[in-house]
Amino acid sequence: MIQIGYVLSGLIAAAIMFLGARFWWAPGAASAAFGIADSPPLSTGFTAWLSVKGTRDIASGLFVILLMANGSPRLLGEFMLLASLIAFGDMATVLRSHGSRALAFGMHGLTGLVIVATGVCLIVGAK
C-alpha cells in the first residue's frame, strides 16, 4: 500500500506542478480549463492573479516531493488528506460560480478523492 501511495503522490505532485506552470506560461488556457464561469478577459492584473495561483500550485507539488523524500509515509499521508481540501475547495468554487458541473465534479472532485485515497493508502500502510 505504501508503494501505491508513493507512486500516486509523485503523480499528483507532478500534475499540480505542471498545472501551476501552465498558469504562468498559458494563463488564458489554464483559466478556461479551471471551470469558473464568467472569468474576466486576460489583463495585466488578472494574469498576475493567475501567476499567484500557479506559484502556489508549484509550491504545493514541491511540498509533496519534500515529504516523499523525508521517508515518513504517515506524515505524507496526513498531508495528502489535508491537501485534498484544496481540490474540494476548487470544486466548491467552480460550483458556486455556476461553472461547469462536469469540470467541478469530474476534475476537481475526482482529484480530491484520488488525493484522499492516496493519503489513506499511506496511513494504513504505515501501521
Task: Draw up the topology in text.
Blueprint: H1 2-25, H2 27-34, H3 44-70, H4 73-96, H5 101-126
Helix pairs in contact: 1-2, 1-3, 1-4, 1-5, 3-4, 4-5
- How many individual domains? 1
Quote the beta fraction.
under 5%
**Which bin fits the share of residues in helices?**
over 70%
Major beta sheet summary: none
How does this model look, in words?
Keywords: Membrane, Transmembrane, Transmembrane helix. The chain crosses the membrane at residues 7-26, 46-67, 79-96, 102-126. This is DUF4267 domain-containing protein. With 127 residues, the protein is an all-alpha fold. It has one domain. It is built from 5 helices and no strands. It has helices at 2-25, 27-34, 44-70, 73-96, 101-126. Helix 1 (2-25) packs antiparallel against helix 3 and helix 4 packs antiparallel against helix 5. The chain starts with a helix and ends with a helix. The mean pLDDT is 95.
Summed up, what is this model?
This protein has 127 residues and is mainly alpha-helical.
Note the main attributes of this structure.
mainly alpha; 127 residues; 86% helix; globular
